[in-house]
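Tutorial handout. Part one gives the primary structure; part two gives the three-dimensional structure as tokens.
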Amino acid sequence: MRTALLVLLVLSGCTHEPSAHADCTGVSDCRPPLTLKTLAGPPLGEDLLGGKVVLVNFWATWCAPCARELPALQAVYGRHKDDGFTIVGIVSGDRATDDAVVAFASGRQVDYPLVRGGPDLERRFEAGDALPTSLLYDRHGHLVKRWLGAIDEAALEDLVKQSLVQ
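Part two.
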């Protein structure tokens, strides 16, 4: 019985591409590596994300729940970005131009990195069709929490604080 359970645990490990972190083992999901160009221009890659607590947030400008959660995300980001927390906003299923997305986000004081999503990126994160969809990863790339729908600021705050001290 224990052998069968151990085999099941090993087989249910990372289902995504391996993380850049060597300790990505066990039953935790692993954050797919990101190497993307932000809508503002600079590249965003593992060199900037490695060792950080990362919230990956799939959203769109036309999505009302997405727009409503932006202030909560920005508030938590603002409080913890100097502590090793970051957010990657992935614009998904949105026909707005990059300039329009940047203007939309800037109008809501969003200053975390934004990138353009696509089917491959959505598949790698198993984002599905629901917007907003968010995934919180700890410093080792292990999935802490997945949200389908808007995030509650207090719940995100608590999980980010916990993840930053681990």
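Part three, for discussion. The chain has one domain: 36-165. The domain at 36-165 is CATH 3.40.30.10 (Glutaredoxin).
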